[in-house]
Design goal:
- The chain has one domain (about 1-175): Orthogonal Bundle (Cytochrome Bc1 Complex, Chain D, domain 2), CATH 1.10.760.
- The protein is about 55% helix and about 0% strand.
- The protein is built from 8 helices and 2 strands, in the order ααααββαααα.
- It has helices at about 1-35, 40, 55-65, 70-80, 125-130, 135-145, 145-150, 165-175, and strands spanning about 85, 95.
Length: about 180
């Protein structure tokens, strides 16, 4: 009986270590995904950062992007040395001019009320729909699934249909909160 109890105890301990390792692996994979898909617009989530651009300039660049980023607009904004990038959805022929990071910093986003980064100019659509909602796993999952689908008119144009990628990005955000 004593041997059986020790064996069960070791099995439970091993399962705990395996679960912790799997969680750590998800955070590491989530960091790589965040860097590849989110960091350009939001900066690093590993440490708080002040935005490199004032909110007025951020909102102007975002509003420009929402107007379609036609050739004339891109030329007008070129004097500000803003890069021209493809939007998240990779639509052919669409180009957006902006200077990253133009989204709020995501350090500490998990558990934070939506729309609460001081100095960031959120869209009225975002504030009307989400202000004060807590960013938890469920909310982040729906948000990352399709920002425009949840709140049409927000400045963010991101859509991640892969649940496993969303889960890993959320694990990383949670670990940095």
């Amino acid at each position: 009986m004593k041997t059986w109890t020790v064996g069960v105890g070791m099995l439970i301990a091993w399962a705990g270590v395996a679960a912790a390792q799997a969680q750590e692996d998800d955070v590491i994979a989530g960091e790589k995904l965040f860097v590849a898909q989110c960091q350009l617009c939001h900066g690093s989530a590993a440490a708080p950062q002040a935005s490199r651009r004032p909110a007025v300039a951020q909102s102007a660049a975002i509003r420009l992007a929402m107007r379609g980023g036609d050739a004339q607009t891109v030329t007008d904004f070129s004097r500000l040395a803003l890069p021209v990038l493809q939007p998240h959805n990779g639509s052919a022929g669409e180009r957006i001019a902006f200077a990253p990071p133009f989204g709020p910093n995501l350090h500490g986003v998990y558990g934070r009320p939506a729309g609460s980064v001081v100095g960031f100019d959120y869209s009225s659509a975002f504030l009307n729909a989400l202000k004060g909602m807590e960013w938890n796993e469920a909310a982040l999952n729906v948000w990352l699934m399709g920002t425009q689908a949840w709140v049409p008119g927000v400045y963010m144009f991101y859509k991640q249909p892969d649940a496993e990628i969303r889960r890993k990005i959320i694990a990383y955000l949670k670990a940095n909160s």
